[in-house]
Amino acid sequence: DADVTQTPRNRITKTGKRIMLECSQTKGHDRMYWYRQDPGLGLRLIYYSFDVKDINKGEISDGYSVSRQAQAKFSLSLESAIPNQTALYFCATSDYWSAGSTDTQYFGPGTRLTVL
Amino acid sequence: RKEVEQDPGPFNVPEGATVAFNCTYSNSASQSFFWYRQDCRKEPKLLMSVYSSGNEDGRFTAQLNRASQYISLLIRDSKLSDSATYLCVVIPSYSGAGSYQLTFGKGTKLSVIP
Questions:
Q1: A24 CB-side CA count, 13 A
Q2: pLDDT tens column, A38-89
């Protein structure tokens, strides 16, 4: 079984709808992330969480919210979807990071979201 | 200057060729560097970390040049299966929760041609 899973894998929705993307991990990592990927723009960080009680905004958090329900679960919500939120969304986890250490990101398979 | 820059390519090379990519970064205090590989419509996966002394893994060699602020990835004896997009990742000095600044480059696309 995959270590990082995302549901749904594909979603088509309409402008104004509320959408939730879910991410689960079995790696036992404390740190979880949500990214979006757009052609020509690369991966951009939306939100990240270093533990269950920690939530932080990333580069492009406007229009999104997150919930860290447990160490293993991190969900991303679009309260009122708009077409420019059409993108490929990735969840990722990482192990502990500190200066001089590494912070390898392990990605889920992605959710392809289309907002009409 | 953008934080992390990569030549988007595409690099079209024949099988067996040697190809090299560079990735420049703007934050001189950056501490950790990585190369990820992403196949079309798939998730990125770690290819290798980049150490100050350089490191090699089979046909792949990664190097760091702190003076000029770039990392490089060299692929020798290219295989068809090497066709993918290669992303560089840079992490600056740790500055505490709430200011995480891991940055991905936009990627360099490689196509290995039979």
A1: 7
A2: 988 889 999 999 889 999 999 899 999 999 999 999 999 999 999 999 999 9
Separation in Å, CA of A40 to nearest CA in chain B:
7
pLDDT in tens, B18-36: 999 999 998 888 778 999 9
The chain A residue lying nearest B38, using CA atoms, is: A107
pLDDT given at position B108? 95
**Size of chain B, expressed as the number of residues it contains:** 114
Pick the residue of A27, A43, A97, A98 with the most B CBs within 10 A to test the interface with B by mutation.
Answer: A43
Collect contacts of B49-57 with beta carbons under 8 A, ≥24 apart.
Answer: B49/A102, B49/A104
Interface of A with B in 11-50 (CB under 8 A): 40-45, 48, 50
CB-CB under 8 Å, B45 with A90 = no
For A5-36, what is each residue's pLDDT tens digit? 999 999 999 999 999 999 999 999 888 999 99
3-state secondary structure of A113: strand
Min distance A59 CA to chain B CA atoms (Å): 9
Contact B103, A59 (CB under 8 A): no
